[in-house]
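[Backbone geometry]
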Amino acid sequence: MTDPEPVIETRTNRNWLRSYGILQSETLPGASQSLADARENVAAYVLLAKGRRRPLLMDMRSVSGALDREARQYYAGAQYAAVVSATALLVRSPVGRLIGSFVLRLTRPLSPIRSFTSESEALAWLKGFLE
């Protein structure tokens, strides 16, 4: 598979726009995210989205670092929801999915978000949010 174009790499993520209009973000192995990192990633989504609100596939299968409280709140807030219409979190295991669901209930994001272990199921769900 060739690399998608363009790719915007931040300190914590590789970000690109898939050919059919879904944003994709892949968390880099071992990356921990602060509020500054969350803002940097959302700025990348803004550039890639080209003025449209788009769904996002967040591949978290290689995550081993922490996502701090301020970063979680930013991803749940208005600036994120203005760019991202829905988020599918792609996790490694059913346990990761359970933990993700618990964290989501605490955060209460403004745009829809779900955890998946299957990329094809995540993409099928996200396609319902293409504008």
